[in-house]
């Protein structure tokens, strides 16, 4: 038997025995002689939870809006799994920060409204002790590609704003696509308790490496997929090594720029315009029947994602009238044009656009835009692919008079077709594997979003090493520990037997029931 396993097993016996002994003593001292049921575990947890909380704030500066998250945890347990939870969330009014490129000064006002609410949530004496992190995602990545000066000005303006705030500002940065993907993966698995750090010892030999869930994130400007590939030999070029609580995870992650919900729809509109014979009246099969809207061409063609689709004679302020035809079949056909399958040349490990991707495996949690879309179709949790298809067809075939009551309903037919296409034809989920995707936006009251994983990582709240000593043991040390722990375990067990026999006598030989 490996040395560590031996020590861990004996430690496990010790811990269980001592815990049980303690329970027994408490029960004896409170003279509770019912069937032996031990509630001390609960007592322990209550005692451990009795700590002053700490707070952290993360601003998720997405392409379409900024969300402020407030997290809380008991200070003394900050490195444990599952102790950080979200206590407050607030959406900053107005568009995402990348929209302020021409007027960064105007950022302050909408931020104020949210920050004032946050200040009420956190005790005043802790304000100075609360860190604020701002991470910007694909919207700012695109702006930086388009005009780096403008992107830096927006970030500088945010720095200025937070210098005047009572909190400890830890900087505003643009995070990369792979970071966004992995932080989302960490958040999802942290919240679902998949990093079982508390039951570390021994268990890992019995259960093998912990099972994690893949993460599917759909933002406004990019979409991320992250999971642990089946083939552990998967080449390290496409995976990121993450070390959490003493375990190594090779996470495959990819962020598809311009495949976020909003940018994808802009590309669809630009494609529809390109394909139509007129430049002012365009049918949109993804809009509800009889819906008409007039858009300035720069609204969709001004983006970096649609640059290659701009008409030859491009006048940013030219108006285009889009007319909805509510045709789900045609909508799907148009959506398919957003993906380039020829670039993969039938390679199996390639979803689209020539990107390498191992076969998707295991369970997935699909959050943010994925969740909001299926929620608009009145679906939730997990359901069959056929169910999704029929809900989508029903939703997309409605005419404008029927759907106008729904807020934000306009784009959901497109989103539904887009995620259907992305998941089925892009990532190759089929009727059989589809139910492995769980559409979920939060666990408890904590949102599944990259922001929590980001904070956990920046604050080192997920240590790379587990708590157990994993250093190579010298034979002498091993022998010493073995003797000591075995003696402890034997003593404890003997004492336990002694106590139990006492209990049984008092209960006239009745055999106790041990409930934990
Ligand atoms: C958490 O881990 C970090 C780094 O591993 C360490 O510096 C810090 O003291 C730990 N905090 C607690 C409360 O254990
Ligand atoms: C808050 O206080 C704790 C404990 O005193 C300290 O470890 C931590 O670094 C402080 N955080 C900030 C942001 O000042
Ligand atoms: C980039 O942004 C800056 C600041 O907003 C602006 O002055 C400049 O004209 C922009 N450059 C381009 C090429 O758009
Ligand atoms: C990994 O990337 C390097 C350089 O980008 C390349 O030379 C190497 O062949 C790649 N390895 C695999 C297994 O794809
Ligand atoms: C555009 O014109 C061509 C040829 O005139 C025609 O075949 C096609 O159906 C037209 N497309 C649309 C969207 O009207
Ligand atoms: C698809 O990708 C290939 C290879 O990168 C490229 O040659 C082709 O033009 C692309 N097709 C479209 C429709 O973008
Ligand atoms: C979803 O359910 C609500 C309430 O039952 C209903 O008003 C709405 O029309 C439904 N939406 C769809 C797309 O079925
Ligand atoms: C989706 O549903 C529609 C309408 O019920 C049906 O015509 C179509 O064949 C379905 N598509 C798939 C792939 O099942
Ligand atoms: C979630 O929040 C609601 C309302 O704030 C609260 O009643 C509920 O207990 C919370 N649930 C959890 C699991 O924290």
Structure commentary:
The chain is an alpha/beta fold and 516 residues long. Among the domains are: 52-174, Nucleotidyltransferase, domain 5; 483-516. The protein has helices at residues 3-29, 40-49, 108-121, 138-146, 148-163, 177-191, 203-207, 261-275, 297-301, 328-336, 369-376, 385-397, 400-403, 412-426, 450-458, 475-506, and strands at residues 53-61, 66-74, 85-91, 131-136, 168-174, 214-218, 222-227, 239-244, 247-257, 281-284, 292-296, 319-324, 364-368, 437-439, 442-443, 446-447. A 6-stranded mixed beta sheet has the order 8-9-7-6-13-14. A hairpin with a 2-residue loop joins strand 8 (239-244) and strand 9. Helix 11 (369-376) crosses helix 14 (412-426) and helix 12 (385-397) packs antiparallel against helix 14. It starts with a helix and ends in a 10-residue tail after the last helix. The model is unreliable at 31-40, 42-50 and 509-516 (pLDDT under 50). Residues 444-445 line the site of one 2-acetamido-2-deoxy-beta-D-glucopyranose (NAG). One 2-acetamido-2-deoxy-beta-D-glucopyranose (NAG) binds at residues 235, 237.
């Amino acid at each position: 038997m490996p040395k560590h396993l031996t020590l861990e097993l004996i430690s496990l016996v010790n811990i269980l025995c001592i815990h049980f002994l303690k329970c027994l003593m408490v029960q004896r001292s409170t003279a509770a002689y019912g069937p032996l049921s031990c509630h001390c575990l609960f007592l322990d947890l209550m005692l451990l939870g009795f700590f002053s909380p700490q707070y952290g704030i993360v601003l998720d500066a997405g392409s379409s809006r900024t969300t402020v998250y407030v997290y809380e945890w008991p200070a003394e347990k900050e490195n444990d799994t599952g102790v950080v939870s979200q206590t407050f969330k607030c959406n900053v009014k107005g568009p995402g920060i990348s929209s302020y490129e021409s007027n960064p000064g105007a950022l302050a006002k909408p931020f104020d409204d949210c920050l004032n609410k946050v200040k009420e949530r956190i005790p005043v004496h802790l304000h100075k002790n609360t860190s604020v992190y701002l991470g910007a995602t694909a919207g700012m990545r695109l702006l930086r590609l388009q005009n780096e000066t403008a992107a830096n000005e927006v970030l500088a303006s945010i720095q200025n704003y937070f210098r005047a705030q009572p909190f400890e500002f830890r900087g505003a940065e643009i995070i990369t696509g792979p970071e966004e993907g992995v932080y989302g993966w960490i958040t999802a698995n942290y919240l679902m308790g998949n990093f079982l750090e508390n039951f570390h010892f021994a268990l890992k030999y019995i259960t093998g490496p912990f099972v994690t869930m893949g993460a599917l994130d759909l933002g406004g400007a990019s979409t991320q997929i992250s999971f642990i590939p089946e083939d552990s030999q998967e080449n390290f070029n496409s995976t990121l090594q993450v070390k959490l609580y003493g375990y190594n995870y090779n996470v495959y992650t990819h962020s598809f720029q311009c495949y976020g919900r909003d940018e994808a729809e802009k590309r669809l509109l630009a494609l529809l315009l390109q394909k139509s014979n007129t430049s002012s009246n365009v049918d949109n099969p993804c809009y509800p029947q009889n819906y008409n809207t007039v858009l300035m061409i720069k609204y969709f063609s001004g983006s970096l994602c649609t640059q290659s689709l701009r008409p030859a004679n491009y006048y940013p302020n030219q108006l285009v009238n889009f007319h909805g035809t509510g045709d789900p079949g045609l909508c799907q056909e148009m959506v398919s044009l957003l993906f380039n399958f020829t670039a993969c040349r039938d390679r199996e490990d390639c979803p689209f656009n020539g990107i390498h991707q191992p076969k998707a495996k295991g369970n997935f949690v699909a959050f943010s835009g994925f969740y909001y879309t299926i929620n608009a179709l009145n679906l939730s949790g997990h359901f069959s692919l056929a169910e999704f298809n029929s809900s989508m067809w029903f939703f997309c075939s409605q005419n404008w008079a029927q759907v106008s009551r729904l807020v934000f309903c306009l784009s959901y037919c497109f989103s539904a077709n887009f995620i259907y296409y992305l998941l089925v034809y892009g990532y190759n989920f089929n009727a059989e594997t589809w139910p492995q995707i769980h559409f979920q936006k939060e666990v408890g009251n904590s949102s599944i979003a990259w922001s929590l994983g980001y904070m956990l990582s920046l604050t080192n709240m997920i240590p790379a090493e587990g708590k157990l000593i994993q250093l190579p043991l010298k034979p002498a040390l091993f022998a010493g520990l073995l003797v000591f722990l075995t003696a402890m375990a034997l003593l404890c067990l003997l004492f336990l037997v002694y106590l139990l026999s006492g209990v049984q006598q008092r209960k006239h030989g009745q055999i106790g029931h041990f409930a934990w």
